[in-house]
């Protein structure tokens, strides 16, 4: 599909609307930019989710945001009038736990992430090491002596780390270089974090780039749009027919590419990081949605 | 010159040796990897420098390392039996001061660098702002509130910063995005820091990359191999005929590209970051030296 053929769901004819809503049983939504933004609520979201449920659609969520705890998400969903259960939502920390268990991983993990993310790994029984967090004395010799600790690290895990710094990156580099079997696993690889309209900031994916370039490794990616997550997602959510899933997201790279890799139908909403221009200028078929809408609320009109 | 034609200076015939030593009046040396490494002295360096002086060659130094003070450099050179004067050496902090004065820069500078680097700017009369250095609370909203301080920053200066972190990069990004006239100036842009043989680490250039990618800006680069430094260097060192300068360095990108841009003769020594294989595999003519040697000491043999 070329970008000029992408249909706004409210431009569909009555017949096409019916065919579209009959074409999926399950709606998987991204969270940030679709359900809410960092600073602002997105209108009509709770209503839209409830309408989908009323019409028998199963709701699931996949976010790249492991910065919040499950309890935080459950409370956020309650404000939308939606009851969340733990099996409804995937984020990178959960997907990484699932992956590590599937490969029977044992050993120490060096973790560049937030505390809620680390807690998910710790609660699943994994042993972590981290830091240094505090500034180090400005001596290359002393910094190397500190970061080159030869701890028996078997996996470097990198996600959003608001306090990522040069010494932590050096430490990760050395673990990976010193042990060719040490795994490199990534959660969120977003190059851009969307805060509010027109306000995008450096995303965590840049720091994974630094590590990949300096070590020559490629990470196993368990956030969107990671292929490894795309392989896992069907099992996690018990999806039988991927073609009957509608994936709704606000980012071309994280959401549309991920949905493409999963074989889902894909819908972009313009309430988050990607603008209509971004979408129309996109030429990579993996990044181009099948449908688009201004926001999730537009979906309710298809059921009227 | 293709890499297969690069001559080892000790493979030159007696006639060629004479022609070579007569072809330059001035030798400009890189420091780290040529005169010493982070961990180890390089044998024969003091002798080589003294031999060059004895034979009437002017000695100058250009390093990307602003992490040391001038006093530290003077002491290092004293251990080699060489008396350093301030006008003999350029490093990025000095070159940036010169550049800022040449454009009559006024205003606040956000500086991502080490304290010795910052001191050079402060001593030259510039006003700096910096940080945050300490870890911030893990809340995107709170971090934005902290880093988005709307200080009247007119230039972001980035060099080696051993404690560079995500909040500092976000702050730099916001200054640059909020003021299209805010300058982006870089010192050392090395992608690799060479510590000792076979031990290379993430270099500061990766963090400039992050800033350039997230802001769409290109930095003015006043470390090697920056074009802006190449324009300045003739004036700083009072060079009349660039063809009669021999530049000696250990890095293909920082040193050979820089020497190419300056129109210097260029010699690679294998005592630092680049290996013979790196040199022979190089196809970019700007990165290929005219001559090479195992180490600076080899030069002394041309004068025997």
UniProtKB/TrEMBL annotation, chains A, B:
The protein, known as: Uncharacterized protein
Pfam families: Hydrolase_6, Hydrolase_like
Cellular component terms per the entry's GO annotation: cytoplasm
PANTHER family documented for this protein: 4-NITROPHENYLPHOSPHATASE-RELATED (PTHR19288), RE04130P-RELATED (PTHR19288:SF4)
Chain's gene name: 5576067
Species lineage: Eukaryota, Metazoa, Ecdysozoa, Arthropoda, Hexapoda
Family: Belongs to the HAD-like hydrolase superfamily.
Keywords: Hydrolase, Magnesium, Metal-binding
List of residues binding substrate: 224
Cofactor remark: Divalent metal ions. Mg(2+) is the most effective.
Residues noted as binding Mg(2+) in the record, renumbered to the chain: 30, 32, 250
Cofactor: Mg(2+)
Coiled coil regions, renumbered to chain: none
